[in-house]
User: Fold this.
Amino acid sequence: MAEKVLMKGNEAIAEAAILAGCRHYFGYPITPQTEIAAYMAKRMPKIGGTFLQAESEVAAINMVYGVAATGKRVMTSSSSPGISLKSEGLSYLAGCDLPAFVVNVERGGPGLGGIQPSQSDYFQATRGGGHGDYHMIVLAPASVQEMASLTIKGFDLADKYRITSMILADGTMGQMMEPVELSEVKTPDYDKSWAVTGTKMQREHNIINSLTLVPDELEKQNFARYEKYKIIEENEPMCEKFMTEDADIIVAAFGIAARVAKNAIVEARKQDIKVGMIRPITLWPFPKKDFFEAAKTAKHFISVELSMGQLIEDVELAIRCTRPVTLCNRVGGMIPSPAEVLDAIKKANEGGDK
Amino acid sequence: MVVFDRPKSLVDVPLHYCPGCTHGIIHRLVAEVVDELGIEGKTIGIAPVGCSVMAYNYFTFDMVEAAHGRAPAVATGIKRSDPENVVFTYQGDGDLASIGMAETVHAATRNENITVIFVNNAIYGMTGGQMAPTSLPGQITQTSPYGRDVKQCGFPIRICELLSTLDGPEYLERVTVNNVKNVRNAKKAIKKAFQNQLDNKGFSLVEVVSTCPTNWGLTPDKAMKWLEDNMLPYYPLGVYKDRSAKKEEEA
Assistant:
């Protein structure tokens, strides 16, 4: 058993990536994720890896694209405005079906916004972010331990499905320190016969490309990619259920919002309110079935989020609008207090607010 | 006896380029150099966005298609991943000198150990003849229908001269392919740019002053004449940086 160490969330991501076999990191400084770059800058040269501070986020994601094309594990990290810049590359990675790992430690927006925690890139992450029809696997840690374990999971899912997986965290997750246990990682062998490694004069040349000018061929590729997405939606949704068995009210929340909500739920239970929580761990694929099942008995849903009503849409879709869903949110770097969430739970319990 | 044949590294398919376009010559020179250096099995080429976007179909070695202007960043990733492989980008003037300027300058200043083939024909070819960062003052294009007005859109960028102000890059040379002698010189420069990478010398860029008869609105022979009369005076041929040669000289 590995010993527990006290780490910042950002550092836990960096060390977990190294344990997962990532030896190539490209990034550009932006708050509040800079500890990842700083950690990589220290560690990578000592283990024969690459740390490179790129000239821009655009360049960084294209360097990621280059390494991904060679079949090796590679990552970049950034925060909201930087992820917007990386969106071009995310679209190309998807168009070429390349595995890559990306971290977004969100800050408030839009525009330059602020540097305090936010979850307002939910739509951007879960709907792809760049141009064209595509998805990324989006993982939402709610502890420093999960920052590490979901990083390792993210690399595996990326390789398994030849897809980009993204950690969608917020500034709190990145900055807070908690004990974390890191142990050796066993990486399965994935087929990389598609990679550009030089033909060695032993095979036909490989081409990594997202240009397809013939419409019916491009359509076929899109259909095929969405068949793959269907398999991911079938196999990979993850969530944590907390006190949901008898719950009349279900709170939906992820990341820091889920931790706040948990406190409020414990308090509400003391007041005999039957409330529980479904915490999506994968934001895409969204744990639709779990919400749909819960809606069979629960009467009211509350979406607690650090955005202006983004998660709530997926909750409404998952339960097919069969129950009222209320929004309990703070934005701009503000975080709801347990009292605010408790208040929303009480209102729902009284059948108020919608 | 065969005295002239298709290079092994060039796929035996018709190229999509217009008659009189110099991409065909430059592709061939790259393939000849790859053959002669015996590096086909470990070469990875990066195609740009522009007329040569489909260059990946014309070479027998591994190829990657990059987003517009990002080829030097993609090449950086590929080279850092497998330093034993030979990595080159093939880019036009819009790709390299406009949208990809940051990637170009920074790959050069890092002395990234890659080879860049820069095809400068002073126009955006694929999108139908718009003004490029290298379009000449007064040059008529689809987006400068009254001629490039330098008061409005500034002057053309001379890439070799610009990059030569950096300490980083190893080798910068401007060549052209308007006649046999210059084609041979161009090949020599391209070969050197690949050899430099094999010798771990770093960033080597060869700018090839080229034609675009279709979008210049000229016949192939008149385009070649236009290149000689207009392009070459603005873009003088020659070596703009050769760090190793300079060191030898000093020694």
In short: Chain A touches chain B at residues 24, 26, 50, 52, 54-56, 58-60, 62-70, 72, 74, 88-89, 92, 96, 196-202, 205-211 (CB under 8 Å).
